[in-house]
Design a protein that fits this description.
Blueprint: E1 2-5, H1 10-17, H2 24-27, E2 39-42, E3 65-70, H3 84-88, E4 99-104
Length: 105
């Protein structure tokens, strides 16, 4: 897992911006007007983030597939933290109300 943001690693994002820019409608979001922050995350197959919450976000994907699980907004924090692949393989039951979708690049 490689995870960084533009506040902790501005040089990485400067380097990235030489070869990449977000789609025009996305550039109008607060994050690109110094009202938020940008995050870069790269993971290998079989890794995941546990359930978590954040405000609205735009998430781009370069290659592969990503499985997303969503919970209703009023769901209490999910404990313990579980690798999402455990839900996929049926080793751990999904929390009540969870739904899923697959994002393809």
């Amino acid at each position: 897992l490689f995870f960084t943001n533009d506040k902790e690693n501005p040089h990485f994002f400067e380097s990235l911006s030489k070869d990449y820019s977000p789609p025009a409608p996305i550039e109008k979001l607060d994050v690109f007007n110094n009202k938020g922050f940008r995050v870069f995350s790269a993971m290998e197959q079989g890794s995941s983030h546990p359930f978590h919450f954040h405000d609205a976000a735009w998430l781009g994907q370069v290659s592969g597939s990503r499985l997303w699980y969503f919970l209703p907004p009023d769901t209490p924090k999910v404990k313990p933290k579980v690798n999402g692949c455990e839900y996929l393989y049926g080793r751990v039951p999904l929390p009540s109300g969870a739904t899923a979708c697959v994002q393809e690049a």
